[in-house]
Amino acid sequence: MSGFLMKKTITTILLIAASIFAQNQIGQAQNYQALPASSYLIEQPDLYYHQHRGFYFSNGLSIAYTYLRHHYGFTTSKNMEDSKINGYLLPYEEIRLGASIANLISIYGALGVGTGSGHYEYVSDYAEDTTLNEKIDCDERLLKFLFGGGAEFYPIRDKLNPVYGIFIGLTIGLSIDMALDHHDFVYYFARFEVGKDWWFSRRWSYGVALNYTAGDATSEYDNERDTYKNHAIGLTLRLSH
């Protein structure tokens, strides 16, 4: 009799244990299914969120003050021609296309065009033939074309940093500046800039930049010397990808 009770007790305990285990397994399964996917899947970071990576595009609109000078003279005499312009470009537009690498640097080609107005001065002084002497002092329309390439560097990598989006840039190339009724200024340039971008969507940003341009082109042939100079400072509003 005691053996029968023992077998019955063991059987009952096993049934209860099996029931508890089954209920526990069902509860765990239900709890697992109720969890959001993010709780058991590792989310991959979006490498393109508020970063310059891959294809790079920027469209900038600027206002700039520019100074241009062309001096043509002779090393063996005082004969010379001198042209100057002080004026403003408004607007000047520049498009940049290229690639951004690791949200650290963007490399691009640049194409720009602008129009404006300025004050034009021209003086020619030929001691050996005074019939060539001339003086012009007038207002003039300006037209600018730019072809070049460059890079932008983004030193701040922490998105939580309040100055995230700051960049430093350098563009070099060829510029053709025209005083439409009188003269063309053709020279090589280097433009330095510093600015900041703010993101308004996953890949797009708007920004502002301050830039300075220095230009120079000098050639000599026999006793003739031809020199072009440019200095400009500008403020740019831009839209970038």
In short:
With 241 residues, the chain is mainly beta.
Strand fraction equals over 45%
Number of domains: 2
Q: SSE order in H/E notation? A: HEEEEEEEE
Structural class: mainly beta
Description:
With 241 residues, the protein is mainly beta. The protein folds into 2 domains: 2-39; 54-240, Porin. 14% of the residues lie in helices and 62% in strands. The protein contains 1 helix and 8 strands; from the N terminus they run H-E-E-E-E-E-E-E-E. The chain has an 8-stranded antiparallel beta barrel with strand order 1-2-3-4-5-6-7-8. Strand 5 and strand 6 form a beta hairpin. The termini are far apart. Mean pLDDT is 85; it is low at 1-10 and 12-35.
Map the helices and strands.
Blueprint: H1 2-34, E1 54-74, E2 80-101, E3 105-125, E4 134-153, E5 166-179, E6 183-199, E7 205-221, E8 224-240
